[in-house]
Amino acid sequence: MAEHLKDDCLFCRMIIGAVPTLKLLETQYSLVFLDIGPLAEGHTLIIPKYHSNTMDEVPDEYLADILPLAKKVALALGTKDYNILQNNGAIAHQHVFHVHFHVIPKPNKTEGLGIAWSRNEPGLEALKAVQEKILARIQAAV
């Protein structure tokens, strides 16, 4: 198996062809296939051909391939409404610990992704403090 793939990972095994997929597209950096437990017809997964648990661990050249592929899938689905979903970590609802992106059609109110969004309103001063903290971390990383 390639050096950046893992023998015990379901998605890595799909990448090398050891587990069958309903492949839609493939590039040097990504594999695109139908989800076997779709939320709506055409629910698609896009996975980088690089094993990592979370998106922040994936090299940029792999990530740069993802959104153009998601756009192609979204256009091919022909639905006006859709979600692009990517989860990192168990409490963020990640179930397969190989980074993956969902393209989920939303053809009507009942099919597709359902989201309950719990908004907070911390106020401008609290948001400015968060902004400063994040900007400091970004500057430290550069």
TrEMBL record:
<dbReference type="GO" id="GO:0003824">
    <property type="term" value="F:catalytic activity"/>
</dbReference>
<dbReference type="InterPro" id="IPR011146">
    <property type="entry name" value="HIT-like"/>
</dbReference>
<dbReference type="InterPro" id="IPR036265">
    <property type="entry name" value="HIT-like_sf"/>
</dbReference>
<feature type="domain" description="HIT">
    <location>
        <begin position="10"/>
        <end position="113"/>
    </location>
</feature>
<dbReference type="InterPro" id="IPR001310">
    <property type="entry name" value="Histidine_triad_HIT"/>
</dbReference>
<dbReference type="InterPro" id="IPR019808">
    <property type="entry name" value="Histidine_triad_CS"/>
</dbReference>
<protein>
    <recommendedName>
        <fullName>HIT domain-containing protein</fullName>
    </recommendedName>
</protein>
<feature type="active site" description="Tele-AMP-histidine intermediate">
    <location>
        <position position="100"/>
    </location>
</feature>
<dbReference type="Pfam" id="PF01230">
    <property type="entry name" value="HIT"/>
</dbReference>
<feature type="short sequence motif" description="Histidine triad motif">
    <location>
        <begin position="98"/>
        <end position="102"/>
    </location>
</feature>
<dbReference type="GO" id="GO:0009117">
    <property type="term" value="P:nucleotide metabolic process"/>
</dbReference>
